[in-house]
Amino acid sequence: MKIGFLGAGAMGGAILSGAINAGVLDPKQVYVSDMSDQIKEKYAALGCNIVKDNEELGRAADIAVLAVKPQYAAPALAGFGSTMDGKAVISIMAGVTVERLRKMIAGNIRVLRTMPNTPALVNAGAFALCNETDLTADEKAFAEKLFSSIGIVEWMNEHLIDTACGLSGSGPAFVAEFIEALGDGGVLEGLPRATAYRLAAQTVMGAAKMILETGMHPAQLKDMVSSPGGTTITGCQVLEEMGFRAAAINAVQAATNKSREL
Q: 78-94, pLDDT tens digit by residue?
């Protein structure tokens, strides 16, 4: 199976590099189209095939991964011409629905819409994949294997993709703000800033790993740490008083609504 990458920048490149490193993709089966000479040189050095334009990519690939920025989607996809007729595309473009994709690509295509997030850059991504897809069984299996090589995969109906955008797509920014705030608290109480950020980031990562690997409810972890009359429950009381949980819920809701607008 020959795989084309229309765009291999930050997110597309994270998926491509991760899949190559995991052995899911052989560079010889990969075709790359990108406007950046630096990116093309990078993947040529890894053994990938570099094409001169999107039409050549469409002719070469059995499946095309669409990883261009949404605002550039229309001209980039028009560049396929009719070369994708009868083939499959996997889109990681935020806000571009399956219906819109079919209108932007000439011919009869099979489509899988996905929502990635930036921790894919460190092989810790969270990928939402649409149930409403007409990919063949083999193509779906390939997609799941591709994304599972650099993160976790959750299948869902397309109307929930905007929610995934608000939660896992925007979530890294929310978590980063939390880590920064935790670090600031440590600095306020005397820790060097670099130490405070390392402790805060490792604490968030460790807590998340405990929840994922044990399957425990987040409240269980909170209760494990909260001794009667202790430091943790005192801090939790302040978070409740300041509306921490409500703010997080409202942030996800606001990001979801913005995704729907876009």
A: 999 999 999 999 999 98
Span 35-75, pLDDT tens digits: 999 999 999 999 999 999 999 999 999 999 999 998 999 99
- Cβ atoms of residues 88 and 62 within 8 Å: yes
Question: DSSP letters along the chain, please?
Answer: --EEEE--SHHHHHHHHHHHHTTSS-GGGEEEE-S-HHHHHHHHHTT-EE-SSHHHHHHH-SEEEE-S-GGGHHHHHHTTTTTTTT-EEEE--TT--HHHHHHHS-S--EEEEEE--GGGGGT-EEEEEES-----HHHHHHHHHHHHTTEEEEEE-GGGHHHHIIIIITHHHHHHHHHHHHHHHHHHTT--HHHHHHHHHHHHHHHHHHHHHH---HHHHHHHH--TTSHHHHHHHHHHHTTHHHHHHHHHHHHHHHHHH-
Strand pairing category for 49-50 and 30-33:
parallel
CB 171 within 8 A of CB 115: no
- Identify the pLDDT of residue 260: 87
CB atoms within 10 A of CB 247: 11
Instruction: Taking residues 143-153, report their average pLDDT.
Output: 95
**pTM confidence score:** 0.91
Q: Which two tokens stand for residue 226?
A: 């909260």
